[in-house]
Amino acid sequence: MLAVRSLRKTYGKGAVAVDGVSFSVEPGQMVGLLGPNGAGKSTTVAIIAGLVTADSGQVTIAGEPLRGDTDPKKRLIGLVPQDLALYDELPAAANLRLFGALYGLSGTELHEAVGSALVLVGLADRAGDLVKTYSGGMKRRLNLAAGLLHDPHILLLDEPTVGVDPQSRNAIFENLEHLKARGKALLYATHYMEEAERMADRIVVMDHGRVLADDTLAGLRAQAGGNGGTSLESLFLSLTGRSLRD
Amino acid sequence: MQASVVAALVRKDLQIFFTDRRAVVLTLAIPIAIASFFGFVFAGQGNRSEAAKVRMAFVDQDGSAISQAIVAGTTADTAVEVTQPPLEEARTQVQAGRLPLVVVIPKGFGDAAGRAFFSGAVRPELQLLTDPSRAAEVAMVKGLLTGHVMEAVSQQVFSGAQGRTLVEEGLRNLDANGLPPAQRELLRRVLTSAQDLYQAQAAAPTTGARPALGVPFAMKEDVIAGNATVKYNGYAHAFAGMGIQFALFAAIDLAAGILLERERGIWKRLRSAPLSRATLLVARGISGTLITLLTLVVSFAFAAVVFKVPISNPAGFLVVIVASAMMASSFGLLVAAVGHTPAATRRVAMFVVLVMVMLGGAWVPSFLFPAWLQNVTQVVPVRWAVDGLDAMTWRGLSLSDVMLPVGLILACSVACCAAALWRFRWEEA
C-alpha cells in the first residue's frame, strides 16, 4: 500500500535529515517507526504526507508515485501530526467539518463522517464544545479523529500519544487496533518502546537519518542474538547507542 | 481550485474572527473612536466653527502711542489670543510650553520706528521670545505682526501726536541726514505736507478713517472643495486615514494568524490535504479582505450616520473600499510569507504600517513634509487609498477620477500576492 524507496533529504548547508530510507507498509499492518530525537522520523513522515519535498527517492501509494500538492492520491493518506493541529477557538465538530471539507466531503457524507469519527474517539457528547475547553487527552483523540475523518487507506501517526494520560492512550490504541482490523495501513512514529512492542507488526529503527533495522520484533531479537525475553528497549539501545541526543 | 474548499476555509476564518466578541467590538470600535477624535480636531477648521486661536503675549516696555496701537490692533485680530503678563512670567510660560511666543516692545520703540519711517534711521527691534517646537505658530504671528506694526506706525505718523513730534523733529534734522539735495527737498515737501494734514485734521476733526499704511486689501474665500451638493466634512478624511490604518492592522492579525497556525502545526494538516498552494493563500486572502472590508464599512457607516460624512459616489466608494481591503489583505499575506514568529512579525509589520500610514498623510497633512518626502508619498499605497476615499466622499468626484488610484492599489495587491506565493515557506518538517 505504502512504499518508500531511497528517500534522501538535506537541510541548510548539507545537514542530512534522511539518508536512503526505504520500507513499506501493507494493508492491515502497523509499522512502528522508532528512533531517538533527531533520527529523521518526522522528516520521513513529512515527506510521505507531502509536506516536504525529498531531494531524491520516491514514495508510492498503491504502486503509484505521489505527484504534487493536488494529487488525488493524497486522499488515501491521513496524517495525525505530533502537534495538536486543531483550532482551539472552534467546536470539535466545526474542526472536523473543515478538515473533512478539505478532502472533498460535503453534505450528508460529511455529517456522517464527522459523527462516526467523534463516536470512534469517544467525543460525540462533546462535539459542540470549543476545543480549548478539552483536556490534553481529549485533544489527542480529536487530533486522531481529524486524521481518519476521510477514511484514508494509510494513516501516518507522528507520536500521537505525547502527553496523554493512560486512559486516553489506551483509547487511542483501541482505535488503532480497530483501524488495523479494518485493513488500514498504519505507520506509527514514536520513541515509546512499549507502544511499538504492543502494537507494531514490524519495526523500522532509524538513527542519523538511516534505517538501522527493519523486521518483526521476533526478527529483531533474533538479529541481536537475544532470547525471547530481550526487551525492545535493549535492542533499540544496542542499535542506536547510549549517547545523549538533542 | 475547489470553490467548496475555499468556502470552507473562509468560513472557518470568519467563524474564528467572530468567536471572540470582545475582540470584534474592539476591532470595529477603536478606529471609530480615533477617527472621531481626529475628525473633531480637524473638522473645526473645515466647518468654520471655532478654529483654535494662537495664544501669544505682549510685554510693552515702551508704552508709547505706537506700541499701544500695535498691542490693540493685534488683540483685535481674531486669529490670536493676546495676554500681557510681566516679562519674567511671559518667559516662564514660553519655557513651559504654554505660549508659543512673546513679543517684547522695548522702550523707545515707537519713536525709533517713526524716525526710521521717514529718515531711514536705524530700525528698532521687536524682541521675540519663541518656543522652538512651535515654528508654525511663530511664523503665523510674525506675519500678522508685520501688518499691525505697519498700520500702527503709519497711522501715528500721519495723524497722531507722536507723529507730529516726529515730523517736526524730522524737519529740524533734515539738513543733517546726508541725503542728496534734490531728495532732501522732496522729503521736506512730504514732511511739510504731513504738517498741513495735521493742521487740517485739527481744524475739522473727523470720526472716520484716518490715513494709514496697512494691508491694502481684504480677502474673500470661496471653498471649491466638493461639488455643488457635497460640502467639505473634516471627519471624512479622518475616517479614511484611520479606516485604512486599521484595515492594515487587521491584515497584520491575518499574517499573525497564519504564522500561529504554522507554529501550532495546523498548517501541516492543511498542507497534507490535496490542495494547491494557491487555494490556501486565496482562501486566506478572501477572508482577510472580508474582515478588513467589514472594518471599513462599519467605520464609514458610523461616520455617515453620526458625523454626516457624505458618500458622494456610492458605487465608486464601494470600488475603492473593496480595492483597499484587497490591498490590505494581500499585504497581510506578504507579511506572513516573510515573517517567522507571530510576535516578532507583528512588531515589525506594525512599524511598517505606521510608517506607511504616516507617509500616506493619514495623521499629518503631507504638505508639512519636506519636498523630497512629499514626492516619496506618491508611491505609498496608503496615499492612493486615502485619496480615493476622499475623492468618493467630500470631494464629490466621479468614478473615473479614482480609476488611477484604484488601478495602482490593485496592482500593489497583485504584486504582494505574487511575492507572497513566491516567498511563502511551504515545507513543513
Backbone shape of chain A? globular
Say what the CATH topology of the largest domain in chain A is. Rossmann fold
CATH superfamily of the largest domain in chain A, called what?
A: P-loop containing nucleotide triphosphate hydrolases
Number of helices of chain A: 8
Described by strand count, sense and barrel closure, the largest sheet of chain B is: 4 strands, mixed
Content of β-strand of chain A: 15-25%
Instruction: Domain count of chain B, please report it.
Output: 2
How would you spell out the order of helices and strands of chain A?
EEEHEEEHHHEHEHEEHH
Please identify, by name, the CATH architecture of the largest domain in chain A: 3-Layer(aba) Sandwich
Evaluate the radius of gyration of chain B. Answer: 32 Å
Q: Largest sheet of chain A, if any?
A: 6 strands, mixed
Any low-confidence stretches of chain A, pLDDT <50, length ≥5? none
Give the beta-strand count of chain A: 10
Explain this structure to me?
Chain A has helices spanning 41-49, 92-102, 107-120, 136-148, 166-181, 193-199, 217-224, 232-240; strands at 2-11, 15-25, 30-34, 56-61, 64-65, 77-80, 154-158, 185-190, 202-207, 210-215. With 246 residues, chain A is of the alpha/beta class. Chain A has two domains: 1-42 and 52-62 and 153-159 and 185-246, Rossmann fold; 84-152, no CATH class. In chain A, the strands form two sheets. Chain A has a six-stranded mixed beta sheet, sandwiched between helices. In chain A, strands 2-1-4-5 form a four-stranded antiparallel beta sheet, with helices on one face. In chain A, helix 2 (92-102) runs parallel beside helix 4. Chain A is globular and about 55 Å long. The mean pLDDT of chain A is 89. Chain B folds into two domains: 3-46 and 240-423, no CATH class; 54-203, abc type-2 transporter like fold (3-Layer(aba) Sandwich). Chain B has helices at residues 3-19, 21-46, 65-75, 87-95, 109-119, 135-159, 161-172, 181-203, 234-263, 266-272, 277-306, 314-338, 342-359, 371-377, 381-392, 403-423; strands at residues 54-60, 80-83, 101-105, 127-130. The longest helix of chain B has 30 residues, at 234-263. Classes of the chains: A alpha/beta (246), B mainly alpha (429). The interface between A and B is medium-sized, with 40 and 27 residues.
